[in-house]
Write a structure and sequence with these properties.
Elements lengths: L1 H24 L3 E4 L15 H6 L3 E6 L2 E10 L1 E7 L2 E8 L2 E8 L2 E5 L10 E2 L3 E21 L7 E6 L12 E3 L2 E2 L12 E7 L8 E9 L3 H21 L1
Antiparallel strand pairs: 1-14, 2-3, 3-6, 3-9, 4-5, 5-11, 6-7, 8-9, 9-13, 9-14, 10-11, 10-12, 10-13
Helix pairs in contact: 1-3
C-alpha cells in the first residue's frame, strides 16, 4: 500500500514537472556575445602576449540553457549542391582560433596581427563561430556588429550529422545579408550550429543569437518508467 501511494505521488510530481518544463523551455532565449573582458587593447594589431591570452572559446548560461562559443576556420571543403545550400563531404585545414569579445560582438583572431572581424579568403581561410548548446535549439534571430553595409553576408552551418563538430554530412546554407536579422532556410533543431563569413567582402562580429530550445517532455516519462520498474522490482523482492 505504501509503495502504491508513493508511486502515485511520484507520478503526479513527474507529470507536473514535465508540463512545467515544456512551457518554460519553449520561450526564446537570447545570448549576447559581446562586452567581454580579456581582449587586446588594439584589436587591429594585438601584441603577441595579448593574443596568447585570448581563449579559444567562452561559455554563457541563460536559465537552464548554456552555450559554448568557439572560433574556428578551414582552408577548403569538398561539397555538392543540396536543398538549402551545399552538403559537406570533407573539410580541409580545420583550425582552432582565438576568440575575442567586444562591445559589438564576438570575433576571430587567426594570428597576432589579424583583425578581430570574421571574414574569409582562399589565402587566410574561412572563419566561423561554432555555437554548441546544452540541448537542441532552432535559431530564430541573429544580430551582427561592425559590418560595413550591403555586401556583408553570413552562412548558417547545420550540424546535420549531430556530432557537435563541423564536418562531413553537415549543410552550409545559402548566403544571407547580415542586416536581415531573422535567418531563413534553417528550420531544423541541433545542439551545434556554425555562423560562417562566406567571403573577403563579408566582415563582421556576431553580436547576439536568439534560439528556441526544443521541449523534451519525453525525458520526464523515461524517468517515470524507470521509477516504476524500480518499485516493481522492490515489490517482487518483498
Amino acid at each position: 500500500m505504501k509503495i502504491r501511494t508513493l508511486f502515485a505521488a511520484v507520478s503526479s510530481a513527474a507529470f507536473l514537472s514535465v508540463g512545467a518544463a515544456s512551457m518554460a523551455v519553449g520561450a526564446p532565449v537570447t545570448f549576447n556575445l559581446g562586452s567581454g573582458g580579456g581582449v587586446p587593447s588594439d584589436p587591429t594589431n594585438p601584441a603577441l602576449a595579448e593574443y596568447n591570452a585570448l581563449p579559444g572559446s567562452f561559455s554563457l548560461t541563460s536559465g537552464n540553457l548554456s552555450l559554448n562559443v568557439a572560433a574556428q576556420s578551414y582552408s577548403a571543403i569538398s561539397a555538392a549542391a543540396a536543398p538549402g545550400g551545399v552538403e559537406v563531404f570533407f573539410v580541409f585545414g580545420r583550425e582552432d582560433e582565438k576568440v575575442g569579445r567586444f562591445a559589438e560582438g564576438a570575433g576571430n583572431f587567426s594570428s597576432p596581427t589579424s583583425d578581430h572581424l570574421l571574414s574569409s579568403s582562399a589565402l587566410a581561410g574561412f572563419e566561423y563561430l561554432l555555437l554548441t548548446f546544452s540541448r537542441a535549439v532552432s535559431i530564430t534571430e541573429l544580430a551582427f556588429g561592425e559590418f560595413s553595409g550591403g555586401d556583408d553576408f553570413f552562412n548558417i552551418i547545420e550540424d546535420r550529422n549531430r556530432d557537435d563538430a563541423f564536418g562531413a554530412g553537415d549543410l552550409i546554407g545559402f548566403d544571407q545579408p547580415v542586416g536581415n536579422g531573422v535567418p531563413t532556410g534553417s528550420s531544423g533543431a541541433y545542439t551545434t550550429w556554425g555562423i560562417l563569413a562566406p567571403g573577403v567582402s563579408s566582415s563582421w562580429l556576431l553580436e547576439s543569437v536568439t534560439v528556441a530550445p526544443v521541449p523534451l517532455p519525453a525525458a520526464g516519462w523515461l524517468l517515470l518508467a524507470g521509477l516504476g520498474g524500480l518499485f516493481a522490482a522492490r515489490r517482487r523482492q518483498g
